Amino acid sequence: MSIDLLAPPRAGSTGRAVGALRAIQLVVEGHWAWYRRNWRASALSSFLMPVLLLVAMGFGLGTQVRPGPATLGQPYVVYLAPAVLVAALVQTAAGESTYPVLSAFKWAKTYWAVISTPITVSQVFAGQLVWIALRLLAAGVAFLAVAACLGALTGPGVLLALPAALLAAMAFGAWIVALAASVTNEGTAFSAVFRFVVLPMTLFAGTYYPIDRLPEWARPVAWLTPMAHGNALARGAAFGNLDWLAAGGHVAYLLAMLVAGLLVAHWRFRVRLRV
């Protein structure tokens, strides 16, 4: 499988050739041109819902949870904030990687229009992934700003929780992009992904309570999910108690998942957009 980000324009394409980075930038600009006119449609799911969840669970249920070993000695809202950040970005990555990608293949056919120019399939793919990462970054910064105003952050270490959450979200999102690039129907598989993967992962991967509170047989399953590793990294960074050896393992797992997902997704893009 070859990555042709730096490949010259295909034979038969028209127009002035552009460099690889400029081509990717143009793809991202296309996404931005659409998003700046339609951002309200995603504001609820990517920003308001995580904030409401933090308020309801942190300040509502949190009044019944005493700081202790299970919360790493932190008030519950403080314990919850880094994990809600991870969960929010993973869920947003799933949303940005499903119907928007399928639509660009099947309904709007945006990808087909773009590859009729000197921009290559791999550059379209890279631009899509860069756009998803930028969306996640913006959502994460906005969430942290509100969490800070609510007093749910403990210090500057939480800034390191953002790249951890971003890595976990992209590791998951890459595989969903691969799925979306393979779907040819109306996207019915996406409902199963949200219902049987995203929701259980949010509930049982250490977002609301430590994984060691799960039954022994369920703990290895939880650690298969990117959210569990993202939660461990984000909380360790936020609270300043990160074990660097364990952190290396978490990062290595997420990077391996991300790279594998990117390779599969890139292959599916090339197959789907073969001309």
UniProtKB/TrEMBL annotation:
Q: Which residues form the ABC transmembrane type-2 domain?
A: 41-272
Family matches, as InterPro entries = ABC2_TM, ABC2_TM_bact-type, ABC_2_transport, Nod_factor_ABC_transporter
Q: How does it sit in the membrane?
A: Multi-pass membrane protein
Question: Could you tell me where this protein is found in the cell?
Answer: Cell membrane; Membrane
Keywords from the UniProt entry = Antibiotic resistance, Cell membrane, Membrane, Transmembrane, Transmembrane helix, Transport
Determine the domain of life of the protein's source.
Answer: Bacteria
Membrane-spanning intervals of the chain? 41-61, 76-95, 107-126, 132-153, 160-183, 189-209, 244-265
Q: Provide the family line.
A: Belongs to the ABC-2 integral membrane protein family.
* Name listed for the protein in its UniProt record: Transport permease protein
Q: What is the originating organism of this protein?
A: Kutzneria viridogrisea
